[in-house]
Amino acid sequence: MSPPADRRRQASRGTYFFLSYAHSAPPPGARADADVWVGKFFADLTDEVRRQARPVAGMRIGFFDQQIPLGADWKAALAEALGDAEVFVPLYSPGYFSRPWALGEQESFRARLAAAGSARSTTGHLVPVLWIPFPPWETHPELEGALDLGRDVPAYAEDGLRAFCMLAPYREQYELLLTRLASRIVHTAERRPLGPSRAPGLDEVVRPGTTDPDFVVAVLAPTRDHLPTDRDPTGYAASGRLWRPYGRRQELPAAEYAASTAERLGLSARTTDFGQAAGLLGRRPAVLLVDPWIAAAPGGVDVLARMLHGLREWVVPLVVTDDDDTQDASRWAAEVTRLLHDAGLPQVKRACTVPEFVDLMPALVTEARRQFLKYGPVVPFEPPPEPVPSLRDGLSATGPAAPTDPASPPDEPAPLRPHGDNR
């Protein structure tokens, strides 16, 4: 049994920096959502901090979320890492401020700073970076802090540090800013250390929406009380959405992993049993996790065929099995795949291990979203009602509109947001 979280934190020596960034949808055909340039930057920054630092024994240099083990509770792991970090380094991009997951990391760290502020100076513990430039019409107060890193490097404000990381002509500027950022991290961590302390979990700082979620994770699996004959009950629970197909190799139900992936991509998500999701699946993109043992019950194939009839294009299925399960599910997986094809879903993926499940999920979430945008219901646009003319402005209730001031140019339509990498 692992030691309690508070005991682990007392034993921890902390981490120099926590790197936060906005996850983006993988391109078509790709599986994982990891940004290779974020990974390269993290490695470069880690090396430079290590070169400058004089860490105490047991102190870690850097952390970013690709280091979290596949079967871990991601939100709990992030909260622990945020509680150990001395400096928070957010990579600001247009998508960062629209991703509740990324903003939740920042708000969690800020809450920890606020709790520590009465006892010590917290200056320098949040060091933002301009990763991708913002369009001229989009402004955020936080950008000033990010621009401060490279005010003497004009191309930094124009192109961002990601371009510096990617392109050889920027090598000199990249190394300059990398050294400067590492120096700030080391100075703060070694001369004004916070020390490990509790950081709020993401669910504590990100308020759930009151309306329908952006995304649904539905689960079609037997419950512990209604298993096929002789099926091992390990991994099953009172509700299908609590199903753990990989047993102790995962700390959370499979549906929670899928929902966390959607949240990292900026979508509010809800998990539910398939039988309770009919209304949501008709109006929201979804991933459907299917345990093929659902078909093994007497008459299960016929029942399943009726349940799957009428699924919409934006419900993307994943048949989940475990290669280490001593009970072979191949026959039922093939049967379920056939039923899903018959229901009009031609692309049916299968995950047989935890790494496959985690690796596939970003692409499945993105595909469901893409199908919803293509085939989903169209909400008619209703223009706001015309304002009632005011007699104070010299207009009659039925008269024509007053002429516009020639000195005031008409409003220009907002420029279209560019496509492409927009994180």
TrEMBL record:
InterPro entries xrefs: FxsC_C (IPR026367), FxsC_N (IPR047603), TIR_dom (IPR000157), Toll_tir_struct_dom_sf (IPR035897)
Segments of skewed composition (Pro residues): 406-416
Origin superkingdom: Bacteria
Cross-referenced SUPFAM superfamilies: Toll/Interleukin receptor TIR domain (SSF52200)
Region (Disordered): 383-423
Protein name as catalogued: FxsC C-terminal domain-containing protein
GO biological process terms held by the UniProt record: signal transduction
Compositional bias annotation for Low complexity: 396-405
Pfam families in UniProt: TIR_2
TIR domain segment(s): 18-132
